[in-house]
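Entry 12.
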Amino acid sequence: MTTPWAIVWPLALGAIAIYMLLPRPKPFPTLIGGATAGAALLLAGFLLIRTEAISPENVLFYCFSGIALAAGGSLVTQQKPAYAALSFALVVLSTCGLFLLQAAPFLMAATIIIYAGAIIVTFLFVLMLSQQDGPSDADDRSREPLLSTIAGFVLLGALLYVLSISITAPSVDPAFAPFLERARAAAKEETPEQIASTLGGTKFFQEFEKAVYEFRETINDKQAAAGLETFREQLEGELRGDWQKAETTREAAPMRAALTKVDEAAAQARQAFAASAFARTAQAMQPPADTLPLSPFSGPPSNRPIARDARGDAALPAANVEALGRSLYTDFLLAVELGGTLLLVATVGAIAIATRHGERQS
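Predicted 3D structure (tokens):
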């Protein structure tokens, strides 16, 4: 799991770079700001990227992502709005490359046609209409550069942290399951010798305690880690002591009772961990089940498993665009209507600005 400090350092360096590159009457040297931004990207790649093997898909993903980040930084630091619009076009094209890597050619083509071909042209059209009286110095400085930089990167850090939790959702089952299965198998044996042999004696508690400790070290939430630490201390002290006392009796019943206490303590630790805010957030961010429809209006689930032929190739349904349109105007109707409303307001504003300037010149 990504630790908070691995996110903080690249964000802090990136915030310094953006602050230095923001427009101001006496700007910082562009070369220093650009070098700081490049160092932030390299540091983020070193701390956050974890790949076991290098493949063309991974290389393209990080290239497109890096270009999108660099173009996004250029978008908010450009003095000339026309250059900012071109930087936005580069962000859109990089995002389209990511869509193509995810086997979404329709989204890639639609994004290029709509955003790069229509929205950005509309932006340039509005810019040309809004500056009919000559050049303005409003773009030579940014308002509250320090506060805006801090607010933007604090929000970005919060988003990255939530994503890191959702991508690597924690679960105690991998750490607990092998040992609990061994304890339950030992409890089913007949003789005390068989129970001790199946369990592995006191070495079982040492191995279990080590596994819980290693899992706890990957959790950076205090409440979630506290419950695991309590269970680890029980394994090291109380539960192992009960087993040693039961083992000296050479009777099966006390040994089974000691193993039952281990199972009960593990269940309490699992419940305490699942009740923590950390685990609840991670569980809430998980993708929905494949059989769960997005809404009662969209028909069959759009996230159902992809049907493949004998060669393993995914079949392209003939009505995929129809299903996409149905989902847009049922599941995401509010978002589509809000997007259309924003475009309408922008068009009306551009016409109003052009009309006002025309009346002033006459």
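Annotation: Residues 274 and 280 are 7 Å apart (CA to CA). The chain has 14 helices and no strands.
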